[in-house]
Amino acid sequence: MTSPTDRIAVLGTGLIGTSIALAAARVGGRVTGWDARDDVAARAASRGRFASVPTMEEAVDGADIAVVATPIASIADVTVRALAADPSVVVTDVGSIKSRVIRDVAEAASSHDISRFVPGHPMGGGERSGPDHAAASVVDGIVWVVAPHDVSSPDAVSLVERFVEAIGAHPIRMSPTRHDRLVGFVSHLPQVASSALMGLAATEEADEPEILLLAAGGFRDLTRLAASDPGLWSEILLANRDEIGRAIDLYVARLLALRDRIRERDSFAVQQAFAEAKEARLRLAAKPQVRAGVAVIQVELADRPGALAELTAGLGGGALNIEDLQIVHSPEGGRGRVHLTVALSAAEQAMTVLEAGGYDPVRLA
Fold this sequence. Notes:
47% of the residues lie in helices and 16% in strands. The chain contains 13 helices and 13 strands.
């Protein structure tokens, strides 16, 4: 094949699967999509740029790569069927868990060759689900873990990595067990924390019906993930139960330690904990090439159509790149705050451009 995006089959056309299909089509790939649910496949195909076919085998036939984007419980069956449908196709998946998926594929494969199976996990998506929210931009710039198992073919691994790069993501290779441990902290634990906090507030609402009226930007940011698909996340967490269990234990221990410092009025320890967290968050907010220094600027913004576009266009006109952007909505409506992260070297210029545009920026960090 001349390109890793020549012929692509996407098996499972939900949010991630359809987004991958659109991203592959965007760079010239011939993409076929299949879903176990005809209505989901039809909605995905209506997004354009790729064709939907009635059977999984028809989608895989002649493909160079098949991307399995189904729920965890069905990945093994679909993967083995895809491997059998075409003796040359390379199969990868997008499951949030790798060790469990690899074990299930090995058991389901029986005598089938699984050297053409290369486990993967694109670190993208969000609390929304379904093909209606899909977009090629979902994969733009994201980290995409490639986690080969013991018998994955080096050529197959290389093909998957080149495919990931071709559609705009960044492949990172790591072992399946390391992947599961790390996502337990940075993907699965945030979902647990968000849902637990939202559940606590909902319980308190029974006695204090106005509690959620006081929920400002911080609460909304922390509980955004609580709007995610309950069935999907229940399956993910149970599949990675050992790692998420350890992550929850460590998180609880950290919360209890901070609680004790607060009760003891240990202002130095409390401030130190917050300072360390702030420093780490600022490093997270920027791309690797600018993590040596970033600045966060707050801008008050009217809550009206086009306001955010005007702000970003003004910065773009000043040749300034936004490394990260967060919107904090005011609970009473009518206005909000935008937190812009820019490279430290561009902070002064950003302040100047914003002031010239009629804004009143405040440097937070």
